[in-house]
Structure formats: C-alpha cells, structure tokens
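Reading group handout, session on sequence-to-structure problems. Before we discuss, look at one worked example. The prompt was deliberately terse, the way you'd type it at a terminal:

> structure Guanylate-binding protein/Atlastin C-terminal domain-containing protein

The input record follows.
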Amino acid sequence: MSRLGTLDSAAISTEFLKVTDNFCKSVFKDSSVKSLKDGYTVTGRVLGHLAKTYVDTISSGAVPCLENAVIAMAMIENEAAVKEGLDIYQSAMEKL
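And the output record:
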C-alpha cells in the first residue's frame, strides 16, 4: 500500500481498481458537502490535512481526537492564508 501511488495501473489488481473506482463514483455521486463546527466547509485540501493528521496519529499508536485534528488543520490553513496575504502584499509593494 505504501507504494500504491508509484505503481503502474497494470501492476495493480483489477479487482482493487474496480472497487476503488466504485467507491470514488459513490462518493462523488452520493456525498454532500461536509462542514465542520461553525459551518466551515471541508475542502479537498482541508480533508487532506485531516486525513494526514488521523493517519499520523494512528501510526504513532495514539488515538485520534477530532478536536485536535481540527485545531491542527486550522493552524495549517491559517499559515497558508498568512503566506498568501504576505505574497499579495509583497507583490503590490514591488509594483510601487
């Protein structure tokens, strides 16, 4: 599983590909937009951060905590927003 992203699709079981394709179709067709407390929409990037936090926590032998995962995700999102704002500010200042 750790090499799944680097494998050629011909090297992956056709049954595995079929099941994952059906899963993805089901998610895109039947799932509604998810949101966190206070109505914050879970984007793909946010879901990726949450999934990574859960996987890292479980891999370390700890029990995942939704509150801690949301706090970690919020910190990552805030850092990204600050960087984006700084980039826009620097670009505007260079134009002056």
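Points for discussion. First: The chain is about 65% helix and 0% strand. Second: The radius of gyration is 19 Å.
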